[in-house]
Amino acid sequence: MNKLYHILKAEELYQFNIQDHYQPSSLKTKGFIHLAYERQLQKIITSFFKDSREVYLLEIEKDLVRNSIKD
């Protein structure tokens, strides 16, 4: 199975852990969830999370996602 990753900041991880479901803010504001393949992670973290002290990764099995994924 192909794996996808969703990058979280500490405050997003906290919300993920205390709620019974997780809905990233991008789903509401942009209509989709940002995901990445492993090969993309370093560049994304360096470019968009450089001011974050820590980031966390949610690992997602691509084949188990029911909604459409655009590469």
What does this structure look like?
There is one protein chain. The protein has one domain (3-64). The chain has 3 helices and 2 strands, in the order βαααβ. The mean pLDDT is 91. It has a two-stranded antiparallel sheet with strand order 1-2. The chain is globular and about 30 Å long. The protein is of the alpha+beta class and 71 residues long.
Précis, in short:
With 71 residues, this protein is an alpha+beta fold. Helix content is 35%, strand content 20%.
Largest sheet: 2 strands, antiparallel
Q: Spell the H/E element sequence.
A: EHHHE
Q: Taking all residues together, what is the mean pLDDT?
A: 91
- Low-confidence stretches are none
Number of domains: 1
| Percent helix | 25-40%
In percent terms, what proportion of residues is strand? Answer: 15-25%
CA-CA gap between termini: 16 Å
- Judging from the principal axes of the Cα atoms, what is the shape? globular
- As a whole number of angstroms, the C-alpha radius of gyration is 12 Å
User: How many strand segments?
Assistant: 2
Number of helices: 3
The structural class is: alpha+beta
Q: Within the largest sheet, what's the order of strands?
A: 1-2
